[in-house]
Design a protein that fits this description.
By secondary structure, the protein is α/β, with parallel strands linked by helices. Helices cover 47% and strands 11% of the residues.
Length: 259
Amino acid sequence: MAAQYHTARFRLVPHLAKALSVPVPPLRRPGSAWTELPRPAAPGAGPAGHVRIGYARASTVRQSFDTQTDSLRAAGVTRVFAEKISTRALTRPELDRVVALAREIRASGAVVTIVVHEHKRLGRGIELAALGEQLRADGIGLEFLTGELQGSHDPSGVVFTVLAALSGMEREYIRDRTLEGHESARTRGKSIGGAAVTDDAMLAVALHLRGQEMSLRDIAGRLVIATGKKKGQHPSPATVLRMLREHDEKTAAVVPAGA
């Protein structure tokens, strides 16, 4: 009865048929299991905002954060987490705090982006790709202010994944070339590293002090560097150990076997 009534009315007033039509989501098809779809936003409700959290990292205690923090503040980032730790460390406490805070803010409905001066501050290769996958799952964006990956990135994007992998290959390439250079220099009899701080006089004193059963730390405290940029300073215990070990190895090589 209702079908006949509505059919007749649509024929008399055709535009009513379009006015009464309701769009059906693709998931709502005959035979499909019912699942709850995202609820529409309330009328007049705008976005919850966009929060940008900064992260800075230095590999050694001697390195400064100034360049990174200045860059982040110039980009309008007011909250910055910083730590001095190697990218190879299994856990980075400040980075963990950044990710945890980003998740908390994202759960409130706001858009969140982690901003870093350069992608190398986060990691390279597989490490960076894994972190990007973690952020993608949480709906968190990434932004780099400089470097090869400069700009805003979707961590799930193919471009980001490929460039992250290439950055890891670059580090391995540089490492291999450095090792090859060192090996080539050793073959030619050249020394590797900075200027030597030890000499024959220092070795003689170190051997004398070792004969008195003094510790490496005490021996280093009695020695003084005679030349170079560190002139007047004490060598480190590690330097003393290396000097004595090299002397012992040379002495053992000179002494005939069975002597």
